[in-house]
Amino acid sequence: MSGPRGNSFFLGNSSGVNFSIILSPRDAETGKLQLANCSGSKRAGDWNLDVTPGVNISKVTVSLTRTLELCLPNATECCPSPLCMVETLQVLACRGSVMLAQLLIQAEIFANSSFTGNVSENATIIPNQAFKPLGSCPCNLTAGACDVRCCCDLECTPDLQQLFSGSCFTGVFGGDVNPPYDQLCSSQSMEYTPEWFPFLCVQSSLDNTPFLGYFYHGSISTPKVPSFKIPPQTSPGKPFTGYREGDPIITEEDEYFTVPQQSMAGQCVGNAPVAYLHDFDVKCLTNLESYKEGLPHDMRINSGTADFIQQNVVYRAITDRGKFITESENLLAAEVLCQNVTFAEHYKFIWKDKNIEQVNVTVFHGSLCDGEILTQRFTVEFLSLNSTNGEELFENPGYQVGKPVRAANLNASDPLGSLNIWQPAGRGLCASATYRPVLFGVDSYSGCILEVDINEDCSLLRGNVTEKLNALIQATHIGKRDNSSYSDRNDWLEIIRLDPLSSNVSTGGLKGICPDIPANLNIHIIFAKVGAVQGIPQQQILAVQISYSTVLWQFQCGLGCKNTLSFLPITASVQFIEVPAQPPLPVSRYQKLYAEFDCSRNEVCWPQLLYPLTRFYTGEPYSQSLAKGLFLAFLVLLAAIMSNPWFSKLWNR
């Protein structure tokens, strides 16, 4: 402890626990601390002990009450020397006469002082990292204070080192920056030493160690603090060239326009930027304690042409709080604290080309009380300026990620169709599950649970499961593009259906077993990027295939087999597969031969076999690499000569 205040925590129930602090002088003969007892108080000498109780954890604060100023002539109650005090404290937690916990504190506190001398302008000389480690004691992280368990820290006095002498940091971090390495002749760290080790081992000083490379070629970089600030433009006065799909929307202060959105982990992020032409609809849980207001609605937005537009905000009051309040604790009316907060925000961006023409915001306010959990809703929708009656006329005929896939039933009088997957609710049963549309570019996997009786007929079960899976696909065709017209049959693709195979497997009269149940529906959608409209990719669906995967259903018997119902999970998966818009050109014979010598495609690179002998190799001086290469060639030539039969005959003569 090097300051006038220190904090620690007591884990557990603190009711009935007595906390005390005592000074622990050392015995003059043995040097050991005196034994502590539970008869102390919350004040000892110049030290006070404060305890802040909590739920299963209590904060313990030790503070110094005296001043830390250096003594002036004829002054008292001050520090006579820069090292003001060195004391050993013990904090005890007792229940009656039984000691529950003990904290040992070594306090070494210096007096407060202000520097009045001249500042030296001599720069610190940093040794060459290639020959001497820059950090001889890497665990010394705190300047002017002793780092616990860092035995190479010169600021640790012998008394402090005695507290942790048995648990010092080891290895390079603990100060052993030049440990013996395996290739050293005097090293015995290798468990298995080959016979040729004494011939090829290294005889060198520890000052010339390969561990120096851990500290060599260090680079200095400016820390980058992540923020939602936009870097200034390199050329002053350069006009804003407009937004492209996915670009973050910019405010007048050159910051990102943010609306709460869901992260990949499913949690809500309050400062997530809004991307151009990307719609979303999210719900976030909050309470009165953690509620935070978003960006002010009077903030102006960059339209895309360096002009700024004001948001058109309409405020409305929530009449039915039950749709947003999902949980409420039973509190007395006199104790409830309420506050007017935002329940929902709906943003509509009117766009044209690469610019934003108008922003309309509808904000719903309501009263949120302490103990209630609020489900906030935030929606962002981009509408084209050419939209009529709220229905958007798509300037880009292709699909956009997150838009529903268009389906049609061209064989019926009403061509409107649907392509859905399940959205289970409650217990996840198929009887109570609702539907949600398949979104373009979003791979999905959903399912529900079907209740099956032990005496269920297998043929009827297969028909029931197939019927529920087919209910998801109320269509015969899928639109190639997002603006496919019902009157033009060429705008639609017929769904390829691979019906489940009929089962002829007999169960032999066994109950509770049904093979070949088509419990999994697989929807594969193949698409390609066929162009771009104003920089936005135009994506088109090329084919849609539906297939089934079968499973073996077997009745699961619970405790005592009293229940005659079992559960069969049925699932539906959607996978989007992107293919090239045009088939790739066939690979020529030359390209096939060249691929064998392409170093970027193969682990073995034959063209670089003699790379160390070229001028491009900079690992060592060229003269040394050339000498080593010639010596290696001499050894290869010598081995070839000695392996020849005539050499053995000549040697025998």
From TrEMBL:
Subunit details: Part of the tectonic-like complex (also named B9 complex).
Domain Tectonic-1-3 span(s) in chain numbering: 241-384, 398-579
BP GO annotations: cilium assembly; protein localization to ciliary transition zone; smoothened signaling pathway
Family indicated by similarity: Belongs to the tectonic family.
Top-level taxon of origin: Eukaryota
Keywords: Cilium biogenesis/degradation, Glycoprotein, Membrane, Signal, Transmembrane, Transmembrane helix
Gene for this chain: Tctn2
Membrane-spanning ranges: 629-647
Name of this protein: TECT2 protein
InterPro entries per record: TCTN1-3, TCTN1-3_dom, TCTN1-3_N
Domain Tectonic-1-3 N-terminal: 112-221
Keyword set includes Glycoprotein: yes
GO cellular component: MKS complex
Keyword check for Signal: yes
